[in-house]
Design goal:
- The structure is a homodimer.
- In chain A, 37% of the residues lie in helices and 1% in strands.
- The first copy, chain A, is mostly helical.
- Chain A folds into two domains: 182 residues, Cytochrome c-like domain (Cytochrome Bc1 Complex, Chain D, domain 2), CATH 1.10.760; 131 residues, Orthogonal Bundle (Cytochrome Bc1 Complex, Chain D, domain 2).
- A two-stranded antiparallel sheet of chain A has the order 1-2.
- In chain A, helix 1 crosses helix 10 and helix 12 crosses helix 13.
- Chain A is globular, with a radius of gyration of 23 Å.
- The interface between A and B is medium-sized, with 20 and 20 residues.
Chain lengths: 356, 356
């Protein structure tokens, strides 16, 4: 190639790359409603990104303190070995960094521990949404035979007769004893105080509310491109939208292992509706790094693995001969598409996910 | 095939299988010194299986109680989020069921948490043996930047000035304050009280001391065959011998990932001796189920995976071109051989390992 032509070509490439980044920076330096339109696979518009805030109503410090004591108390389990905090560790965004949760007698559960983030914002709880409120959720692990293996009644007996609970219970509620409702209320009061860990994303999205140009300066070019892809081409906000980075809905992404050893019927377990087989609740992506490994089965521990999975349009397992005519064989959601992300785009998306 | 010949053949097979099991049962119903000779790859005889007992000397209840309080105290870490118990959970034979340990700020360590079993019996501590005594070991995580990230001095300041430690320290030692030695002593005093979880194997090996025929009746045919393989053809006792099911030595089994992303130089990190590159301390196999996932990198979570690994004679990675002439490239120990275990033999060995 002619030397001048080569120089010219390089210069065009450089300029064009420069221009693209410039324009992304310019675009994202504007107020959020002027950012590039979110691309999602849903018909309804996705909720914009925003900071996650607890609802203003807060319980008294004494109730929160009682909740904290209960949350960390192994007496909530049958054999006094497992507390809420055994699986929900504050230093790990209230997860445990295990593939699958572990209950009493070292029993391994069937699902990955979910982070406790934004309890005020969920419409359901658990991967299958079997609890409708945080208070319902809080009591369920107590009675789950492979988690705490106890009963609420037994826990109330233990706690109400324990010397070290006398003052905390009285200080919180002006009563001698907890009942089921107050036990749940105290636990949830404590959970409502959990802040998501500060991250580059939390700083960015806080700042973006008031000063978008300062906000965008916090992101490097690759992270900014990743944010843009997250909002557009990669269609992440189809399901991961709003302050919670979740649509509060249930989807089949194809990891149900229907008819196989790792089978998990997901939301069907809560509803018994065959249409819910293989659906799982969209988790928040906040505190993503702290909540590794990911997915309901904890089977992913690399962001590249996740990005490749969605780049391929999720999993679309083919029923074996045995299940060929099974009407319940789960169909992977049509919201997922092949994305055709380039290697650089994947890396940029990962760079953004790492800011969460 | 002639019907009578078929029947005859079946009958021969049945009889021979029956005879083999019968004779294993008969053999193992005898006192242990009459059991089939242990086959190992070492020149020295392997130490026989026996119950693991703490040495008789025990510290006072007050010292043990102080040790327990310290062991469970997150104030031992810089940011008050990590205690010894964060990674060493009593319900999991003092492991954490994570692939790799997790310290302050959610930092992921480089190695799998080891069970705390038989502290009296080890000649070294950690996968690389960098501590020579349990007391040395106990203080090291405090100062490790990705574990507790603190310093012994800082911990002593915190603990000695804490109101809730005043009585426990005085009751234990008749002093106002702990020093480094007493801190370690209390922690180890508590660790010395850890019993390995009761299991079919612990019941079997206890009973085998006094009543071998009752002991062998505890095992089913497959478990018994597995025990026999463990002691003979599978050569497990080459390294997993005696009460601890460990030879207290360091070996290269081939999982060092030398020159690659997961590289772990093992014992070399403690000794700086190139001959120690890629060597890891033989772990105990007691409480095997509770301490999953296994190996220094936590990369194995199925016993079949482990059995296949040793059946193949361990890993013998070939140096890439870059390391072809590297004199430090670790050689996998010659103690490991291909074992040629049949599928049934593998299953029997696994059935035995599951009793541990």
């Amino acid at each position: 190639m002619n030397k001048w032509l080569l120089l010219l070509t390089c210069s065009i490439f450089t300029t064009s790359a420069f221009t693209q980044e410039q324009s992304l920076r310019e675009l994202y330096a504007k107020p959020q409603h002027e950012w590039p339109t979110i691309i999602s696979s849903k018909d309804v518009p996705a909720a914009p990104l925003k900071p996650l805030k607890a609802k203003p109503f807060k319980q008294s410090d004494e109730i929160i303190a009682l909740g904290e004591k209960l949350f960390n108390d192994t007496r909530l389990s049958r054999d006094n070995t497992v507390s809420c905090a055994s699986c929900h560790e504050s230093r790990l965004a209230f997860t445990d960094r295990r593939k699958l949760a572990v209950g009493i007698d070292g029993q391994v559960g069937t699902r990955n521990t979910q982070a406790i983030i934004g309890v005020d914002h969920w419409q359901t709880f658990f991967w299958d949404g079997r609890a409708k409120t945080a208070a319902q959720q809080a009591l369920m692990p107590i009675e789950n035979p492979i988690e705490m293996g106890s009963s609420v009644e037994l826990v109330l007996n233990k706690v109400n007769s324990a010397e070290d609970y006398k003052s905390p219970i009285f200080n919180a509620f002006g009563k001698e004893a907890l009942n089921k409702e107050l036990l749940a209320l105290a636990l949830v009061a404590f959970e409502r105080t959990f802040d998501i860990p500060e991250s580059l994303f939390t700083r960015f999205i806080d700042k973006a509310q008031t000063n978008p140009s300062e906000a965008v300066a916090l992101l490097d070019d690759q992270q900014l491109e990743g944010l843009h892809l997250f909002r557009t081409k990669a269609r992440c906000m189809t399901c991961h939208e709003g302050a919670l980075l979740s649509d509060n809905e249930f989807h089949v992404t194809g990891l149900h292992f229907y008819g196989r050893k790792l089978q998990d019927l997901g939301r069907f377990e809560a509803t018994q509706d065959p249409a819910d087989i293989g659906k799982f609740r969209t988790p928040s992506l906040l505190a993503l790094q702290q909540s590794t490994p990911w997915m309901h089965h904890g089977g992913f521990q690399s962001l590249l693995g996740i990005v490749n999975f969605y780049n391929a349009g999720g999993a679309r397992p083919k029923p074996s001969k045995k299940f060929k005519d099974d009407p319940n064989y789960p169909q992977t959601t049509e919201l997922l598409h092949k994305l055709a992300l380039s290697k650089d785009e994947k890396n940029a998306l990962i760079a953004f996910l790492e800011t969460l």
